[in-house]
Amino acid sequence: MTLSCFELGERMLTVVEAREALADLVRHALPVEPVPLAALHGRVLAEPVVSAIDVPQNTNAAMDGIALAWPVAGEVPSVWPVAGEVLAGRQRDTPLAAGACVRITTGAPLPPGADTVIMREQLVEVGDAVRVEHPERVRHGQHVRQAGEDLARGETALAAGTRLGAAELGLLASLGVAGAFVHRRPRVAVFSTGDEVTAPGEALPPAGIYDANRYTLAGLLTEQGVEVLDLGILPDAHDALVVALREAADRADLVVSSGGVSVGHADFTRAALEEVGRLAFWRIAIRPGRPLACGQLGARQVPFLGLPGNPVAVMVTFLQFVVPLLDRLQGRAYRPAPLTAVTDETLKSRQGRTDFLRGIYHAGPDGRLHVRSTGAQGSGILSSMVAANCLIELTDDREGAVPGEAVSIHPLHRLS
Ligand SMILES: Nc1nc2c(c(=O)[nH]1)N[C@H]1C(S)=C(S)[C@@H](COP(=O)(O)OP(=O)(O)OC[C@H]3O[C@@H](n4cnc5c(N)ncnc54)[C@H](O)[C@@H]3O)O[C@H]1N2
Ligand code: MOO
């Protein structure tokens, strides 16, 4: 096996180098399965969806009113005899006689010959006819939705690799698609390590700390549409650890842990991981999140990522390194979508290292996005993460930023 992942040694890696090397851990996307429309939310398309119909199917009225063939030249009549009625769900095949109109409701197909719709509010009833109040305001072709204007038959509606959200589900349904081929949902095992780490609900020992990371990770994974296998807090007992890791390697597509990865960290976790798989310990030029372990576990060579223990480092390294692996497992490209904002304050970072600061961005009166940090940036301080709506990325080529300078921000997808 020529995994660059294991050959990078002790050198400090850039974020991009680390991400590229980690990609080797996932060789194949997960298998493809057919899933019914109602269960597709959050899933990733394994193949493109091509429209089998025109959407809309017919050229139809966008307003309740009358449909008629508007004379392109010559005298425009203001009174139009009503020759019939077309309701939504019905169709009139008889062509419209010149100078006549039909009553029509929104969504009903235009009869042959008709090309223009006038809304009811602009009409006055005169016996079996209607009078158009301001014929000079009518535009030829107005209030008509053309067949296929949303999607034409044979057109690719959604590309392979698309994650299906609310809009995509509506689009699939509008094509009459009752199900699609998607990648199996990734199954990700998570566990916490560390003697001090205590489960919420238990009494906190004098030197203890409550287990924040497993819940943060489960939340982040759920947001990514992943099935979470919670392995709990693994004990510092070699044999129990090996059993838990073997089980994870059997059942999961990816194993993610937190804690116990810093340089010289001599603990049971590392020994057990090395017994179950092949591991590399890295230092990455990123803050927070410098130490990281990676490798493969068990006979199935399940990718493993050991994130650092500090809670904010967990969130930042998840977004930088776990999300791209989840994308690969689901056959899609990693697509970070940073925005540009003007910093309102001095931001500190160091050249040669990518810094992620917790920030708050907002639209300024100048029409541009502005950002400031949420304050204390220690990598254990979760309250400044809770206050943040973005991460500010200061890449390794820059030394901080001064007020007025443009910086990259990554909006955080927060429930609100
Ligand atoms: N000599 C060095 N020491 C450290 C380095 C280094 O490069 N050289 N890096 C520092 C950085 S940066 C980080 S980040 C941490 C990462 O260390 P570990 O991954 O080994 O993590 P731990 O030591 O286990 O924990 C760090 C910190 O986080 C707390 N923690 C751990 N797990 C949880 C959890 N599930 N929920 C909440 N908090 C957790 C733990 O109590 C520690 O306070 O190493 C530095 N040291
Ligand atoms: O990389 Mo460690 O991230 O922050 O404290």
Description of the structure:
- With 416 residues, this protein is an alpha/beta fold.
- The chain folds into four domains: 4-31 and 184-329, 3-Layer(aba) Sandwich (Molybdenum Cofactor Biosythetic Enzyme, Chain A), CATH 3.40.980; 35-54 and 151-183, Molybdopterin biosynthesis moea protein, domain 2, CATH 3.90.105; 60-145, Molybdopterin biosynthesis moea protein, domain 3 (Molybdopterin biosynthesis moeA protein, domain 3); 339-411, Beta-clip (Beta Barrel).
- Helix content is 18%, strand content 30%.
- The strands form seven sheets. The chain has a seven-stranded mixed beta sheet with strand order 1-19-21-22-18-14-17. Strands 8-5-7-6-10-9 form a six-stranded mixed beta sheet, with no helix packed on it.
- The longest helix has 19 residues, at 311-329.
- The chain is elongated.
- It starts with 11 loop residues before the first strand and ends in a 5-residue tail after the last strand.
